[in-house]
Amino acid sequence: MNPMNPPASKDDTPTPFRPHDPDFVANPYPAYAALRAMGRVLHYAPTGQWLVPHHADVSALLRDRRLGRSYQHLFTHEEFGRTPPPAAHEPFHTLNDHGMLDLEPPDHTRIRRLVSQAFTPRTVERLAPTVRRLAARLVDDFVAAGGGDLVAEVAEPLPVAVIAEMLGIPDADRPLLRPWSAAICGMYELNPGEDAAARAVRASREFSSYLRELIAERRTAPGDDLISALIAAYDDEGGPGPDSRARLTEQEMISTCVLLLNAGHEATVNTTTNGWWALLRHPEQLAALRASPDKLLPTAIEELMRYDTPLQLFERWVLEDIEFAGQVLPRGSEVALLFGSANHDPARFADPAALDLSRAENPHISFGAGIHYCLGAPLARLELQASFSELLAKAPRMRLAAEPERGPGFVIRGLKELRVEC
Question: Mean pLDDT across the stretch 120-146?
Answer without folding.
Answer: 93
